[in-house]
């Protein structure tokens, strides 16, 4: 069987048990002769199992009263229930369909040392995706007359340590605001940028002691992100991209921000 007949969508369908028996048997036979693809499928299955273990209980919880009440209001022409539904759908896709995570675009992940904690990629991706989906300009702290310095002071005061404020102006995106969000290991920061058409790019920053991870690509539903870790913090740059050119632009933006924050 020719490899070009098997798409990523079919491999994900195989992992999720959505193929008809005949096609499943064909792909399983092909994987038996392709160790690299078989290893990739095994990683997808392991990610599925990990996400089920982490989030199945959360998916079955009742919606908190504050969120349920907020869903009755409308904001900026987008009903909050729609944004919340999209955010919840991302978790469902992550748990049921699997996250596609792999070092790509010529950037190889750092080899981890067994004794050093690994970055919690599932936690980072779920939180960064949800934060991107439910971010609205009226919920963000706007960039004041004090500019980036004021944004940095505001976030440092609430996060307990200094944080650099990145810029995407050379990519046509201006910083429209920031906010502090709760996370498992303390407060996280989110920067939100927008271009002239209103398209958003967000950067999620959470404290996380890890061995460090180079810029790595991830995909969940229609959201793309590049994430990395600098041993003290993890970062995820998130947006929606329509094609390979858009993904390449997001990678270049992530590389630039990585350089800005690591100086």
CATH architecture of the largest domain: 2-Layer Sandwich
CATH class of the largest domain: Alpha Beta
Tell me the β content.
Answer: 15-25%
Q: Might you state the CATH topology name of the largest domain?
A: Phosphorylase Kinase, domain 1
The SSE string, one letter per element, is HHHHHEHHEEEEEEH
Under CATH, the homologous superfamily of the largest domain reads MucB/RseB, C-terminal domain
What distance lies between the first and last C-alpha atoms, to the nearest angstrom?
50 Å
Biggest beta-sheet profile: 7 strands, antiparallel
Spatial shape: elongated
User: How many runs of DSSP E, i.e. beta strands?
Assistant: 7
Summed over residues and divided by their number, the pLDDT gives a mean of 75
Walkthrough of the structure:
This protein has 263 residues and is of the alpha+beta class. It folds into two domains: 79 residues; 162 residues, Phosphorylase Kinase, domain 1, CATH 3.30.200.100. It is built from eight helices and seven strands. Strands 1-5-6-7-4-3-2 form a seven-stranded antiparallel β-sheet, sandwiched between helices. The protein is elongated, with a radius of gyration of 19 Å. The termini are far apart.
In short, what is this structure?
By secondary structure, the chain is of the alpha+beta class.
Annotation keywords:
263 residues, alpha+beta, 2 domains, 7-stranded antiparallel beta sheet, elongated
Describe the secondary structure blueprint for this structure.
Layout: H1 8-15, H2 21-32, H3 35-59, H4 65-70, H5 80-97, E1 100-102, H6 121-133, H7 147-159, E2 174-181, E3 188-194, E4 200-207, E5 213-220, E6 223-229, E7 233-239, H8 244-262
Antiparallel strand pairs: 1-5, 2-3, 3-4, 4-7, 5-6, 6-7
Helix pairs in contact: 1-3, 3-5, 5-6
């Amino acid at each position: 069987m020719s490899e070009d007949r098997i798409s990523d969508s079919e491999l994900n369908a195989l992992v999720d048990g959505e193929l008809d028996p005949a096609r499943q048997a064909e792909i399983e036979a092909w994987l038996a002769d392709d160790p690299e693809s078989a290893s990739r499928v095994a990683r997808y299955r392991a990610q599925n199992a990990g996400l089920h273990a982490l989030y199945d209980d959360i998916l079955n919880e009742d919606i908190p009263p504050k969120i349920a009440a907020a869903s009755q209001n409308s904001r900026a022409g987008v009903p909050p229930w729609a944004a919340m539904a999209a955010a919840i759908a991302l978790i469902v896709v992550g748990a049921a369909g699997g996250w596609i995570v792999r070092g790509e675009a010529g950037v190889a992940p750092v080899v981890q040392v067994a004794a050093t904690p690994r970055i919690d990629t599932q936690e980072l991706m779920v939180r960064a995706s949800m934060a991107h989906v439910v971010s609205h300009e009226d919920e963000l702290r706007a960039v004041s007359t004090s500019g980036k310095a004021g944004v940095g002071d505001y976030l440092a005061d609430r996060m307990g340590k200094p944080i650099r404020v990145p810029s995407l102006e050379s990519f046509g995106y201006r910083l429209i605001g920031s906010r502090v969000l709760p996370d498992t290991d303390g407060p996280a920061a989110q920067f939100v940028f927008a271009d002239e058409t209103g398209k958003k790019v967000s950067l999620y920053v959470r404290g996380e002691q890890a061995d460090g991870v180079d810029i790595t690509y991830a995909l969940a539903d229609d959201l793309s992100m590049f994430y990395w870790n600098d041993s003290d913090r993890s970062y995820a740059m998130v947006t929606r991209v329509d094609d390979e050119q858009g993904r390449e632009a997001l990678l270049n933006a992530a590389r630039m921000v990585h350089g800005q924050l690591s100086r």
